[in-house]
Amino acid sequence: MIALGDTFLHNFHFSQKEVNLFAEVTGDNNPIHIDSEYASKTMFNKPIMHGMLGACIFSKVFGTLFPGEGTIYLNQELKFSKPMYVEKEYTAFFEVTEVNVEKHRAKIDTFIKDEEGNIVTSGSALIMNVSKI
Length: 133
What we know:
The chain is an alpha+beta fold. The protein has helices at residues 16-26, 31-34, 36-40, 51-64; strands at 7-12, 72-80, 90-100, 105-114, 119-128.
């Protein structure tokens, strides 16, 4: 059962192939994500990941790991603070900040940090899980 103050961590990374597949599926073919020559002339100097691809890790964790099966993702606020890059390791952090047992809902703060500990993505999610909240 999810309780106030519970935390969860999940390490992950994405490859350029996965970024290209995300671009294909979503139709977001902005060259900043898929063209290294184009990206080399930008302030980032190399391709950056789609912010929403990075944030997709929250959906994976909620649906399969924490709290897992049966979770319904109701809401997510996001802030993209720094770019994310392929083949770089990231850690997604989750902290339960509110629990409504009667409605089987929980508010969870969500963060992604890079290897240096910088927050690259942050926000707050609202989830529902009848069997785990």
